[in-house]
Structure formats: C-alpha cells, structure tokens
Task: structure prediction
Amino acid sequence: MDIPFVNLGLQYQGLRKQILDKFDELSKKGAYVLSSELREFEENFAQYCGTKFAIGVGNGSDALFFSMIALGIGKGDTVITAPNSFIATGWAIANTGAQPVFVDVMDDYNIDPDKIEAAITPQTKAIMPVHLTGRVADMGPIMEISQKHRLHVIEDAAQAVGASYKGQKAGSFGVTGCFSLHPLKNLHVHGDGGIITTNDESLYEHFMKIRNHGLKNRDECEFWGYNSRLDGIQAAIANIKLPHLDRWNQRYREIAVQYTETLADYVQVPTDQEYEIPVYHRYIIRHSRRDALHSHLAEHGIETKVNYPIPLHLQKATQLLGYQKGDFPNAEQQAATILSLPIYAELEDTQVDHVINSVRSFQG
Ligand SMILES: *Cc1c(COP(=O)(O)O)cnc(C)c1O
Result:
C-alpha cells in the first residue's frame, strides 16, 4: 500500500464539476482580477474567522509582509517570533528591513509566552506567533504581554485555518491574521494565494491599496504599493471549498485522535489542551531515531516529511543575526526528532491503519 504525504487530486475529484463550470463561466466573462468573486470570498472568509474584514493577496508571505509595512514596521525595529517556523515568517520580517528576534517554543511547537518578555527591547514593535501544525499558540498570555508593552500582534495563521482557542478562531486575536491558500494548506487554491483578516477598518483600506500598487482608484496613486492580489479564479475556487472546510478539518482531527491513541506508547505524540480545537495541518511525532523511522516507513510505502529540519536561526540567510546552535534548545531538539505523518481529509481508514501498524512495527 502506497501512501503519499499529500494527494491533492483526490480533493479535486470531488469538486471537479463545480470548479470546471466556474472556470468556464469566469473565463467567458473574462473576470480575472479584483473581480466580484474575490469580494465574495473576502466576505465569506471574514465571517468564517469572526473578523470584520478580509483582504485577498497573492500569497501568505505577502499577508505577513503587508501587515508589518502597514503598521510602519521597518529598519531599526524588531519583531518577536518562533525559530521553528517555515522560512516565510522570517523572510517577511527581514524583508521590511526589521530584524527577527526568536524566542524558543514549547512542547506544542508554539512560542513560549514565558520567554517573550525577556526578548522585548525598546526596538520591539510586534509579536508574531505562528500557529504551527494547526494549533493556536497560547494567545491568552501573548495578548496580555502585547497590551502591557504596547506591541502589535500579527498572527501567522498560515497552518491554522479553522483552528480555535477558547472558542475564538485563529486570525481573530491579533491586529491582523495572515493565512496562506497554498496547495499544502488545509484550505487551498490551485496555485498561490493568501488572505489577511482584520477588525481595523483603516488598516483594511490600506491593504486594499497596498496590494494594488498603492492605487486609491483607477488613476490616483497614494504611495508605492505592490502588485499582489488573490486572482478571481483562485478566489472562486476558495469559495467553492470554504463550505467544506469544517468537515475536512473534522477528518484531520479524527485521524489525529486515531494516531495519538494508538501510537502514544511507541513514539512521542502531540497532546491537545482542552480549550483548543486544533486542525492538525501537520501531525508530528517525535523519535530519537527519526531518520531510521523515516526509512522504515518509506519501506512500507509511507511518505513522511520533516517540518522543518533546519530552524530559522541556523539558516545561512539569518547568519548575520548572530545566533548559534544551542540558543533555542527546544526548537533544536525538536528539529532533530520530528517526523510528519501523512494526514489529509481524503485519507482512508485502511490507510490510517497501515500508517499506525507500520509505526508500531518499527524496532526503535
Ligand atoms: C505556508 C506558510 C507561510 C507562507 O505562505 P505562502 O502562501 O507559501 O507564501 C507562512 N508561514 C507559515 C507558518 C506557513 O506554513
């Protein structure tokens, strides 16, 4: 039995007719850029997240980048984030001219609120928690710290669409929530895409211009912005998919529960907090002989990945920040032992069982 790490074609099969009909309709009209489909998806997505506004952009990285430049963050400023995220988190901060400052993570792979205050300096402008693996960071204390020190909170919610913390959805805590619609995310389009959520009307209006060259209307440009909009066809696809998201996420959770219940005696498994509803974008186990486990699973036809093997502070791109091995022991220890198992809504019970039996048969 071969189990690929992702299988995007399966989701498409179920929605093929709707998507092709929509593609045909929009192509006949020529409605591609800043179309009514985009507006519709933005309204639906804001409502889904429980925010007033949402703005579709070219990708999740730009959602993060635009959030910071709209808040005036740039050279001379620092932004606190987690060192175990995807490259884009660090890139977005550095691309504004600001400097990322990393804070170690907890067992749940999210930033440790107890370690944030020690990293705050007069240069700090924002905290960027990353809701890694589809579990919301510990937002209670993070929001308290941000209020006490008057810092912005920008949520990197790229992996957490639909996840909640104490009944509140990811992307609705910070001044902005930043989502990716990349094909590997739980809600994805057929290419690149991103979306920003916010309750702040003036920021919303600013984002509408930033993504469109800084244009206030067709002819008047207020400032140099960017060209980074969510395409109309992608927005239409997202609109078709959004009503299915809760059902898909429920299946991710179901698989996660099965993995956790059956694997806890064999490998280290994640443990949910009772106040959270995770969406398990990634289901990550830990084992001291991770590479051997990876090979063992490959021999059983199971594709696994490491998200991510090199923490941000040890990347060549961040060399000038002066971090060293040993600076973030939890993130580093995790990077050496984590392994992501296949998890997606279309995974069948027999496949889940095969993954479970194969992990259990590993002679660690
Ligand atoms: C995917 C991802 C991003 C970037 O999204 P893109 O749409 O690929 O630009 C940012 N942060 C995290 C944590 C991600 O997983």
